[in-house]
Amino acid sequence: MENTLTFRNPTFTSADIAFVRQVIADHPDEGRCALSKRLCAAWNWTQPNGQPKDMICRGLLLTLEREGAIHLPPRKKVPLKNPSSHRSRPEKIDIDSTPVERPLRELLPISIQQVRRSALEKLFNSLIEEHHYLGYTQPVGEHLKYMALYEDRPVACLAFCSAAWHLGPRDDFIGWMPALRHKNRHLLAYNTRFLIMPWGRVPHFASHLLAPCLRHLSSDWETLYHHPVYWVETFVDSGRFKGTCYRAANWIFLGKTTGRGKLDRTRKPNRSIKDIYGYPALKAKIAALSTDSTNSSKPPSSDGPQVSRPKKKKSSRSKGGQKGHKGHKRELLPADKMDNIVDYYPCACANCSAEMDPENCPETSEPARYQTFELPKTRPIATEHRCHELGCEVCGHRTRAELPATVAQSQFRGCWHAFLEGYISRRQLLDATVLPRARMK
């Protein structure tokens, strides 16, 4: 049996591992980073935005080395044991913190800007670190950062990143199977931070900001990562907040977390249990993602290789009709209702091959009856319309008769002919020109 390795869902065969060895042997002077990029190019292993999956490939190389399948060149640089633990915290940036206390209508319009990879990103990180109770942590993977500005002063910050791999209440609400979740998980986003500045004391401000931010989220995500976002979710610590702003913005309460986290090994709660809220940014799109041949009219060929259909349990009943079942079959019409009756007689004996004549050999039982029904052959009814010309006895003017409106409007086709042609060409998708047409000579 061929040895295989599954890493981050793709499965690598012995031939793939042999190819990795060959690449390392052909480029002995290249480091691990260059080798991973070369493998990404050879396998066309790219993200939706076209960037190579470099870090995932490096993880694959390290896994293969630990398994003893390959030997990597020595590291050119020795990394820190945990780079994230040595990352410096965002520096504090002093800004105007004069309270903003007024009705929401007096603040409109509020400017909401996507600040990732912009001059305002450092200010965003500093505000989250100083004023959010969770502080600032560098997001992993795809993420966007938004800042709400009033008269060039920040009044709110929102951050979004890739959604959790598996979330029971969300997956049950969307209604997709594990294969569909794996295929479409990149279309989900997670609202990881939502901060209203302490000086922004405006009623209904939080729920108002969510709507315009979500309107731009999918298009901004597609601009940066070359794919849209159909669904947004978030967690709310019910011990600190009630989630009122999400409910007011029409987010849906999906349930509660288990309190175990994604790295749980004990199956016991080890952190606070949070409320889960979700918002279908594009309802029609997220509904389409949860359909396949098992729950819709889609053919199985549209599922793709990732969709695994549940195996049916083997029944204890035998195949075919069960004992005592009457069956369903159409009753034969009486002989006097038939248009034609065709009799068939055997020509030779099936036992001794002697010739058999129906006039001399007696019938031993009633004949077996089979009935077929056929549509009659149709022929178009061709009608010639003649418009005669008569001369007036009084003035001698000649006048020719005009065609009736129904004949002229049908372009020399009868009413039923025109109806049938329209039905066949539009509903049956056939070429209507094959229908016979009457031609005027």
Give the helices and strands, then pairings:
Layout: E1 5-6, E2 11-12, H1 14-26, H2 32-43, H3 54-66, E3 111-114, H4 121-131, E4 143-150, E5 153-162, H5 168-174, H6 178-184, E6 188-196, H7 205-225, E7 231-237, H8 244-248, E8 252-256, E9 274-280, H9 283-289, E10 389-391, E11 398-400, H10 405-409, H11 415-426
Parallel strand pairs: 6-7
Antiparallel strand pairs: 1-2, 3-4, 4-5, 5-6, 7-9, 8-9, 10-11
Helix pairs in contact: 2-3
Structural notes for this entry:
This protein has 441 residues and is α+β, with helices and mostly antiparallel strands. It folds into three domains: 5-80, no CATH class; 98-262 and 270-293, Gcn5-related N-acetyltransferase (GNAT) (Aminopeptidase); 389-434, no CATH class. The protein has helices spanning 14-26, 32-43, 54-66, 121-131, 168-174, 178-184, 205-225, 244-248, 283-289, 405-409, 415-426; strands at residues 5-6, 11-12, 111-114, 143-150, 153-162, 188-196, 231-237, 252-256, 274-280, 389-391, 398-400. The strands form three sheets. The chain has a seven-stranded mixed β-sheet, with helices on both faces. The protein has a two-stranded antiparallel ribbon with strand order 1-2. Strand 6, helix 7 and strand 7 (231-237) form a beta-alpha-beta unit. The N and C termini lie far apart (78 Å). Residues 437-441 have low confidence and may be disordered.
